[in-house]
Design a protein that fits this description.
mainly alpha
Length: 409
């Protein structure tokens, strides 16, 4: 009798998980958060001082202050690295469910739509190093918070774009987007004239911001003139273009006009960007040529020369190039756990190139060769999502580090 009850409980749990997986994970998350909150109140030294603060909060605070907090630096540690990896894996699972629910395809148009956010987020991270943002706004642009912030923002835009495309006439969609852009402009003007010192150390003139808004609205007008609906990807790309234009302007202002805050005498290294991009391009070109030469003997190798594979290699070679150049020539240091260990063991940051090559090559092999048949049709979104995640994990730190070195911060 006891055994049958236990079996019934297990079956009931499995049925509940199948029917309500989100609720179950939310319950588990709330339970875990409650444990840490209660523990931090009643056993502060154990839960807060020696765990949450030490491994999660203090590294972010130290990164913002650019100084060690006690004996804790802004570098990643093994505990938060594993935690962030698990959060990323769980996030990909639920993003996949979200994309399936709204029938959003991961194709070239989708990647093109989100690409401005990838680049602008990376540049914004470098601008945070240049002290463009004031606290507490600064904390939104420190990794890993910036990844969560931009990820949630893009998901909200995808929901908005889906609603505008499928539920409204294109005239109404353009009106709503026009009101959204007008509101952004109005908020910017208010902040510029009344609260500038509260959030930023420097802001572009409102007239320039309005011109950027008009420029970013062009894709919306194009869809309105040439298509039946305002596409979801167009909505996402348009707003991403706004952020990319702003972040690019701030970077160019720092490099070519003047610097803000107390960073006036900082040296810039424009040639660093040229060297880094050349090394990344040359490394990618070598992989591409070798894959092309070997495709006759091993047809499966040709997948390494495909467009998306080339993008993945370039993204991670850019990160490797920036790491190598920064450490070996400009006295920068590595923050991540595994690269720090390998660079220390090898005695030179050039080890990043074979490391990045092996990681990307293995991922491409697993997704496009070894398990290609298993991932066809139903799992195409999963493959696309994993490739986007891999792309972001390479190109985001690569661009951030490159821009940071060019700005001299």
């Amino acid at each position: 009798m006891l055994k049958s009850k236990r079996v019934m409980c297990i079956r009931g749990f499995k049925e509940f998980y199948v029917c309500h997986p989100v609720k179950l994970w939310l319950i588990a998350a709330l339970l875990l958060i409650s444990i840490f909150v209660v523990g931090s109140i009643f056993w502060r030294e154990v839960f807060w001082d020696n765990f949450i603060w030490r491994y999660y909060v203090a590294p972010i605070v130290a990164d913002v202050d650019r100084n060690s907090t006690g004996d804790i630096s802004g570098d990643y540690n093994i505990v938060n690295t594993v935690t962030y990896g698990l959060i990323l894996a769980l996030s990909l699972f639920y993003i996949l469910k979200f994309l399936k629910r709204y029938n959003i395809k991961i194709d070239k148009k989708f990647m093109f739509a989100i690409f401005p956010f990838i680049v602008s987020g990376s540049i914004a991270r470098a601008l945070a190093d240049a002290s463009l943002f004031r606290e507490p706004l600064m904390y939104l642009f420190i990794a890993p918070v910036i990844y969560l912030f931009i990820g949630v923002f893009v998901i909200i835009l995808l929901i908005l774009g889906t609603f505008l495309e499928r539920m409204l006439e294109k005239k109404d969609a353009v009106r709503i987007l026009g009101c959204l852009y007008f509101t952004l402009g109005a908020i910017y003007v208010l902040i510029y004239f009344f609260q500038q010192d509260l959030f930023f150390r420097f802001m572009m003139h409102p007239v320039l911001f309005i011109l950027i808004i008009a420029f970013s609205f062009v894709p919306i007008i194009f869809d309105y003139k040439n298509k039946e609906d305002i596409a979801t990807n167009t909505t996402v790309f348009s707003i991403g273009l706004l952020f990319l234009s702003c972040s690019t302007y701030f970077t160019c202002h720092w490099l070519f006009i003047e610097r803000w805050g107390n960073r006036i005498n900082v040296n810039t290294y424009l040639t660093a960007g040229a060297y880094i991009f050349f090394i990344a391009f040359f490394s990618t070109f070598l992989v591409f040529i070798v894959a092309k030469l070997l495709r006759n003997k091993r047809p499966s190798v040709s997948v390494y020369a495909s467009g998306i594979s080339t993008m993945l290699f370039f993204a991670h070679f850019l990160d490797a190039s920036a790491t190598y150049f920064g450490i070996e020539y400009l006295a920068y240091s590595e923050k991540h756990v595994l690269p720090t260990y390998l660079i220390g063991a090898a005695g030179n940051a050039v080890i990043m190139f074979p490391l990045k090559f092996l990681i990307v090559a293995l991922i491409i092999y697993l997704l496009d060769i070894r398990y290609k048949k298993e991932f066809e049709n139903e799992q195409e979104r999963l493959v696309g999502l994993v490739k986007i995640a891999v792309l972001i994990l390479g190109i985001a730190p690569g661009i951030r580090d490159t821009v940071r070195m060019m700005m001299g911060v």
